[in-house]
């Protein structure tokens, strides 16, 4: 065994740290007082949340605004393992569905997604999830190891569930919400030019144009848009927080074999460290391009069960070297050329409509 692959074994020990925690201070490219556009969300079914920005307000007039959710951050980070320097760290599983090819790393529910469940991998994944229920995570790690890193729930079959080991989210503090208005003006007054007759139901009782009328929707009349979301100014700053839950990682086992369990944990730790120390794109959406705040350095801490904290150094390049060595010890060549074959780690399978129909029929029977 090389010294490198055992370097982080103290983190895997039962008396080791509970988590690795990162705090990264951000700001809009325009500056600390710049406007940013957080994510918007649909209204809740019970209408207690009316939709729009997710802003939690407190009795002392402070608030916290969710800029990018845990799920969204995971979707930005996980495809990293499709890139050249990282692809060899995990099996590359691709599902062909009609004219489209979907990598498992892009599937919304990862190993629990319908596109994979209704493919030639169905039986293998079913058995891997059953193994999870019996305390053995090794079979799933051989097929979809990032599902162990970012969490997975086989909600439509075995109900096997694994928590996220790495979560990241971005929040803005004490925000001031802005609104914006716009006015669409068509190039021609179609009614005045007698090109089109104005429909009798175009306006409401107050004479205002109905914005959802086909005439308005298709751009044949003036359409005002007032009071829509105009972004926020974060008076209390913006922060990305990421956590690698080492305590949860230590709950992963391979059969009841201590040596195999250690190899599994080292491999998953390597992948988790890659995800944790990666730099996901800070261009989140139109109007939300974030950069590091130069006045506030990034902090990485090891947090122990007694609340004690220690500074941690985790350069991404060092984590990549460790992850490659851990992958080799787990039986995967991180430097291999990606070739899809039935008996190899990298596979290309077809989505099977017949399996999908059976899956739907099973749901109806319930």
Would you mind describing this structure in some detail?
The chain is α+β, with helices and mostly antiparallel strands and 366 residues long. The chain folds into two domains: 9-173 and 234-365, no CATH class; 176-232, no CATH class. 26% of the residues lie in helices and 26% in strands. It is built from eleven helices and 19 strands. The chain has helices at residues 9-12, 70-77, 114-117, 122-133, 138-143, 146-150, 214-217, 246-249, 258-277, 316-330, 353-365, and strands spanning 19-28, 35-36, 40-41, 52-53, 55-57, 63-68, 93-97, 100-103, 152-153, 161-162, 166-173, 175-184, 223-234, 238-244, 283-285, 288-292, 299-303, 309-311, 347-350. Strands 1, 5, 6, 11, 14, 15, 16, 17 and 18 form a nine-stranded antiparallel β-sheet that branches. Strand 5 (55-57) and strand 6 form a beta hairpin. Helix 9 (258-277) packs antiparallel against helix 10. The radius of gyration is 25 Å and the shape is globular. It starts with 8 loop residues before the first helix and ends with a helix. The relative contact order is 0.21.
């Amino acid at each position: 065994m090389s010294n490198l692959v055992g370097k982080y074994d103290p983190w895997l020990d039962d008396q080791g740290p509970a988590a690795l925690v990162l705090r990264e201070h951000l700001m809009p490219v325009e500056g600390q007082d710049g406007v940013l556009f957080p994510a918007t969300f649909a209204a809740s079914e019970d209408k207690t949340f009316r939709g729009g920005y997710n802003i939690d307000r407190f009795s002392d007039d402070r608030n916290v605004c969710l800029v990018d959710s845990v799920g969204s951050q995971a979707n930005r980070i996980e495809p990293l393992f499709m890139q050249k320097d990282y692809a060899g760290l995990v099996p590359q599983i691709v599902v062909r569905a009609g004219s489209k090819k979907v990598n498992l790393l892009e599937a919304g529910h990862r190993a629990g997604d319908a596109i994979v469940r209704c493919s030639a991998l169905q039986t293998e994944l079913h058995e891997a999830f059953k193994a999870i229920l019996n305390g053995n995570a090794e079979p799933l790690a051989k097929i979809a190891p990032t599902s162990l890193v970012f969490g997975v729930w086989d909600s439509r079959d075995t109900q096997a569930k694994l928590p996220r080991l790495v979560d990241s989210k971005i929040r803005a503090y004490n925000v001031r919400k802005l609104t914006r208005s716009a006015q669409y003006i068509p190039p021609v007054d179609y009614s005045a030019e007698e090109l089109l007759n104005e429909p009798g139901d175009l306006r409401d009782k107050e004479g205002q144009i109905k914005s959802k009328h086909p005439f308005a929707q298709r751009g044949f009349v003036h359409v005002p848009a007032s009071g829509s979301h105009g972004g926020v100014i974060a008076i209390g700053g913006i922060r990305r927080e990421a956590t690698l839950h080492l305590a949860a990682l230590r709950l992963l086992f391979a059969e009841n074999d201590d040596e195999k369990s250690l190899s599994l944990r080292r491999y998953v730790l390597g992948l988790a460290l890659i995800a944790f120390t990666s730099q996901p794109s800070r261009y989140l959406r139109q109007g939300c391009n974030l950069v590091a705040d130069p006045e506030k350095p990034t902090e990485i801490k090891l947090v122990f069960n007694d609340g004690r904290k220690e500074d941690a150094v985790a350069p991404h390049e060092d984590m990549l070297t460790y992850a490659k060595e851990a992958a080799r010890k787990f039986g995967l060549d991180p430097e291999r050329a990606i070739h899809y074959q039935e008996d190899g780690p990298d596979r290309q399978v077809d989505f099977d409509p017949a399996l999908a129909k059976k899956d739907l029929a099973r749901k109806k029977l319930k």
